[in-house]
Design goal:
By secondary structure, the protein is of the alpha/beta class. Helices cover 28% and strands 15% of the residues. The protein contains 14 helices and 18 strands. α9 packs parallel to α12 (431-448), α10 (299-310) runs parallel beside α11 (343-351) and α13 (456-466) crosses α14. The longest helix is centred in the N-terminal third of the chain and has 30 residues, at 97-126. The radius of gyration is 31 Å and the shape is globular. The N and C termini lie far apart (88 Å).
Length: 521
């Protein structure tokens, strides 16, 4: 029970002696003298109500959404972003993709450890629950309004954001289009993948693809043989090949509780050796990160998955191996456009030589509807077209931020038949279905031209330059480059034929004159 203020208690208040009453004349005279005073003389004017005070510089660092959450709760989950980023220039000087990834991992982790040290010390002192991330230089915190306010006062803290999630796009169910010869699905044939298999002689061998999605049914006949975690004797090693940051799946094995991830993986590598040739690069191997718990993807899982792609870990999330990073990562997910929250992740992948494929979004047919992270200049995003080469009505259009052309390219995304959990197949529609075609096209390209491995800019240039120009003036641009089809329709055969294929080697030795090595050699 709250205690009462003793000073206001009638029982303890001292007894006052009664004063004699003033005469009526005296009272009236006093009142009249007040009323006749000049305006502003003798009587202070009431001060105007100042209203709510403007937020301080520290308070402005805290996202309004988070302030509202903390007003009504003792604690909330929030993200503390530091004001500095690691310099990844050294990664660009590395000659191999593995060396790039190792340099990126070391540089990013060292920078995060240094720049986050004081914030983490403060969190430990407050007894707060926290998780440090190196790929975006941020710390996830479970804390109070007071803690958020204290952290916001630190000079190295750039902003404090509310926790959020990304909804996993729900594909539209479609119908099966008639397969072409040899049980090849129409969409696989349309981008000329079978011609790459037959004429060039590559199917993605030596390349590892990954997806950040709802998981994968690793026992599905169309993808089981391509799982990197499957050993030659039929046993499985899921460490470094599967990541479930939220612990959704039972045990250590991959699972998919949504269908979405198994479907996108099937489009990349699926082939059951019989009547279901559903994948672009069936010779490639796959690994996967479950960045989406079910129908949505938490920021924590997406960021943790982004880190794992750079350096896969064991089943305890320890002992990272950048040498086991995939070559390509497909991301068939996204949110509203203009949100840079995943920018540092995409930039890190590129620095590590990992190709970042994204869906462009399903918010069409209006212009300027591209979603994030697909709308980043550093993301390679795909729009969707149908069996008649017409753009899908749902396919998001550009422009992107700053007027850049989006999507980058277009791929089949309507009535795409692929694998779903339980060993069956379904036809779905969405840009989620288009992006895996592009991701797997990169697998074919790098398999045919190993010199391109890790060279993201040159790979993008080849895809752009060999795409089939498709005119649309709806959202600006011309036949060569517009905000509906991007650079055009994906043609992986043309890209492979334009690539620097053939035997590659390095020339080494010593230049001599009269038997003596020349200076500087």
């Amino acid at each position: 029970m709250a205690q009462r203020d003793k000073r206001s208690s009638p029982a303890l208040r001292p007894t006052r002696r009664a004063r004699p009453a003033r005469s009526l004349r005296t009272a009236l005279a006093a009142l009249t003298s007040v009323l006749l005073l000049p305006l502003g003389a003798g009587v202070a004017a009431a001060a105007p109500d100042p209203g709510p005070s403007a937020p301080t510089a520290a308070e402005r660092k805290i996202e309004p959404k988070l302030r509202a959450q903390l007003d009504g709760a003792a604690k909330a989950v929030f993200w503390v972003y530091l004001d500095s980023a690691a310099d990844l220039t050294a990664a660009g000087r590395q000659q191999t993709r593995a060396a790039k990834a190792e340099t990126v991992l070391r540089t990013k982790k060292d920078h995060a450890a240094r720049s986050q040290a004081d914030v983490i010390k403060a969190l430990q002192g407050a007894g707060a629950e926290y998780t440090s991330y190196w790929i975006v230089n941020a710390v996830r915190v479970v804390g109070s309004q007071k803690l958020a306010g204290t952290l916001a006062q630190r000079p190295e803290v750039a902003r404090i954001d509310a926790d959020d999630k990304v909804e996993l796009p729900k594909p539209a169910e479609g119908r099966r289009e008639k397969a072409v010869a040899d049980a090849v699905e129409w969409n696989i044939d349309r981008i000329n993948a079978p011609q790459v298999w037959d004429r060039i002689g590559v199917r993605g061998e030596g390349i590892v693809v990954a997806n950040i999605d709802s998981g994968v049914d690793y026992t599905h006949p169309a993808v089981a043989g391509q799982y990197r975690g499957r050993n030659a004797d039929g046993s499985y090693s899921h460490a470094y090949n599967w990541f479930d940051p939220a612990g959704v799946c039972a045990g250590a094995a991959p699972c998919d509780n949504n269908d979405h991830g198994t479907h996108t993986m099937g489009t990349m590598v699926g082939d059951d050796g019989g009547a279901n040739r559903i994948g672009v690069a069936p010779g490639a191997r796959w690994i996967a990160a479950k960045g989406c718990e079910s129908n949505s993807c938490s920021e924590a899982s997406l960021l943790a998955s982004g880190q794992w792609i750079v350096a896969p870990t064991d089943l305890n999330g320890q002992n990272p191996r950048p040498d086991l990073a995939p070559h390509v990562v497909n991301n068939s997910w996204g949110g509203a456009g203009g949100d840079p929250w995943y920018q540092q992740v995409v930039d890190t992948w590129r620095a590590a030589g990992i190709f970042p494929a994204f869906s462009n979004g399903n918010a069409g047919p209006g212009c300027a509807t591209t979603g994030s992270p697909g709308d980043y200049a550093s993301s390679y995003s795909s729009g969707a077209f149908d069996i008649n080469n017409a753009i899908a009505s749902f396919s998001s259009r550009g422009t992107g931020p700053g007027g850049i052309v989006k999507p980058n390219i277009s791929a089949p995304g309507v009535n795409v038949r692929s694998s779903v959990p339980g060993g069956t197949y379904e036809s779905f529609s969405g840009t989620s279905m288009a992006s895996p075609h592009t991701a797997a096209a990169v697998a074919l390209l790098w398999s045919a031209a190993p010199a391109l491995e890790g060279d993201i800019a040159q790979t993008e240039s080849l895809l752009d330059g060999t795409a089939l120009d498709t005119d649309s003036s709806q959202c600006g641009g011309d036949a060569a480059d517009n905000n509906v089809f991007g650079e055009g329709r994906l043609d992986v055969l043309a890209a492979v034929e334009a690539a620097p294929r053939g035997a590659l080697g390095a020339l080494a030795g010593t230049v001599r004159s009269d038997g003596q090595p020349l200076a500087g050699d």
